[in-house]
Amino acid sequence: MEENVKKLTEFSAIKPTGTLTLGSYLGAIKNWNELCEEYNSIFCVADMHSITIRMDPAVLRRNALEQLAYYIASGLDTEKCILFIQSHVHEHAELSWVLGCYAMFGELSRMTQFKDKSAKNADNINGGLFTYPVLMAADILLYGTDVVPVGEDQRQHVELCRDIANRFNGVYGDVFKLPRAIVPKVGARVMSLTEPEKKMSKSDDNDPGSVMLRDTDDVIMRKFKRAVTDCETCVRFDPENKKGVSNLMTIYSAVTGKSYEEIEREFDGKGYGVFKPAVGEAVCDTVRPIREEANRLLADKAYLESIYADGAAKASRIAARTLSKVYKKVGFIKKA
Ligand code: TRP
Question: How large a percentage of the chain has pLDDT more than 70?
């Protein structure tokens, strides 16, 4: 893909701390896909972001490769977008250092994710957890990104990225484009099937509330049959009072394209015993072809290798240009 000057650029990434969920697909990858025609699209497997928590190296490697396979299996067209692995493009780490000098302790301390994660990992509040959004800002700014499709929980990080870029531009002139987050309305927040007040998590493989893209049909059906609902029996969209049912409706709507009214009508008088397996079936129909294609790709390591090598080469070309401009602006001597 050659860069097209008229098109805007979209950039997004997922960190491979776990295996991709139905939430990652509906809330992220599916939307990236839809934007691909319109934008110069760059998608990254954010492996460097994964090590703020202790990860088994073999698991991280497996997750990262699997994530790449799922990106492609979900429909991301390797001819139309750049797919790469973050650690293959060293400019991310380098720009991150520079940007860290333009990010303030106070603003990093105020990040909700930092506060949440520090509370949850009190024994490992490392520097990476704190500077996580700076690396993310580097990811975004290296590519002259205009839009960053993300979930609601990442909006604050994209805003911080904008603030850092603005501050840098204020000192050195217009170096960075100012990106903005775009948060999809439907499927933006796919919640856990067992604890519908929490986001569906990708970190725990055995979590019965998370549907993994690699789950077999049987496993998916079992998870949906056990999904938490409420003591009424009516399928009605009410995210305040009927969190579980509304989450199932969101999922069903996202995979079938049906509106909430249509779904309410479809299950009128039918009860959850009919509704839950119907959602499960519809999810199986969506996930099955993706899983099968991903498994096929994962069996072809040489192909995946060619994709990420090509992606890294294309990404590096753009990233190197941005980094060298930044190095010049801040006063580093050009390498002879
Ligand atoms: N922080 C994002 C998440 O947890 C992943 C991510 C890393 C990202 N770098 C990014 C998202 C750059 C958008 C742009 O989901």
Answer: 97
Residue 65's pLDDT is 98
Q: Is the pLDDT of residue 332 over 90?
A: yes
**169 pLDDT above the threshold of 70:** yes
Decide: 210 in ligand 1 pocket, CB within 6 A.
no
Least confident stretch, 75-89, 107-121, 200-214: 200-214
Euclidean distance between CA atoms 312 and 140, whole angstroms: 15
- Answer yes or no: is pLDDT of 186 > 70: no
Residue 27: band (very low, low, confident or very high) from pLDDT cuts 50, 70, 90: confident
Active-site position among 15, 30, 202, 314 = 202
Question: Does the C-beta of 150 come closer than 6 Å to ligand 1?
Answer: yes
Q: Give the whole-angstrom CA distance, residue 238 versus residue 289.
A: 31
3-class SS letters over the chain: CCCCCCCCEEEEEECCCCCCEHHHHHHHHHHHHHHCCCCEEEEEECHHHHCCCCCCHHHHHHHHHHHHHHHHHCCCCCCCEEEEEHHHCCHHHHHHHHHHCCCCHHHHHCCHHHHHHHHHCCCCCCHHHHHHHHHHHHHHHCCCCCEEECCHHHHHHHHHHHHHHHHHHHHHCCCCCCCEEECCCCCCCCECCCCCCCECCCCCCCCCCCCECCCCHHHHHHHHHCCCCCCCCCCCCCCCCCHHHHHHHHHHHHHHCCCHHHHHHHCCCCCHHHHHHHHHHHHHHHHHHHHHHHHHHHCCHHHHHHHHHHHHHHHHHHHHHHHHHHHHHHCCCCCC
Q: pLDDT band at residue 187, thresholds of 50, 70 and 90?
A: low
Q: Is 13 in the pocket of ligand 1 (CB under 6 A)?
A: yes
